[in-house]
Amino acid sequence: MPPISSDLTAMTLAEARDAIKAKKISSKELTGAFVKAIEVGRPLNAFITEAGEQAMLMADASDRRIAKGEMGALEGLPLAIKDLFCTKGVRTTAASKILGNFVPPYESTVTQNLWDAGAVMLGKTNLDEFAMGSSNETSAFGPVFNPWRASNSNANLVPGGSSGGSSAAVAADLCLAATGTDTGGSIRQPAAVTGRVGLKPTYGRCSRFGIVAFASSLDQAGPMTKTVRDAAIMLKTMASVDAKDSTSVNLPVPDYEKLLEGGIKGLKVGIPKEYRIEGVPAEINALWTKGAEWMKAQGAEIVEVSLPHTKYALPTYYIVAPAECSSNLARYDGVRFGHRASGARDITDLYEKSRGEGFGAEVQRRILIGTYVLSAGYYDAYYARAQKLRTLIKRDFDQAFEKCDVLLTPTTPGPAFAVGAKTTDPLEMYLQDVFTVTVNLAGLPGISVPAGLTETGLPLGLQLIGKAFDEATLLRAAYAVETAADFKHSPAKWWNL
Amino acid sequence: MSAAGKSKNLKGETGEWEIVIGMEVHAQVSSQSKLFSGASTEFGAEPNNQVSFIDAGFPGMLPVINEKCVEQAVRTGLGLKAQINLRSLFDRKNYFYPDLPQGYQISQYKDPIVGEGEVFIDLKDGETIKVGIERLHLEQDAGKSLHDQHPDSSFVDLNRSGIALMEIVTKPHMRSSEEAAAFLKKLRAIVRYLGTCDGNMDEGSMRADVNVSVCKVGGYDEFRKTGSFKTLGTRCEIKNVNSMRFIAQAVEYEARRQIEVIEGGGTIQQETRLFDSRQGETRSMRSKEEAHDYRYFPDPDLLPLELDPAWVEAIKQTLPELPDEKKARFMALGLGAYDASVLVAERELADFYEEMAKGVDAKSAANWLNNEVLGRLNRDGLSITQVPVSAAANNAIIRMVADQTISGKIAKDLLDIVWTEGGDPKQVVEARGMKQVTDTGAIDAAIEAVIAANPAKVEEVKAKPKLAAWFVGQVMKQTGGKANPMAVNAALKTRLNLPDEG
Question: Which CATH number fits domain A10-263+409-496: 3.90.1860.10, 2.30.30.100, 3.90.1300.10, 3.40.50.970?
Answer without folding.
Answer: 3.90.1300.10
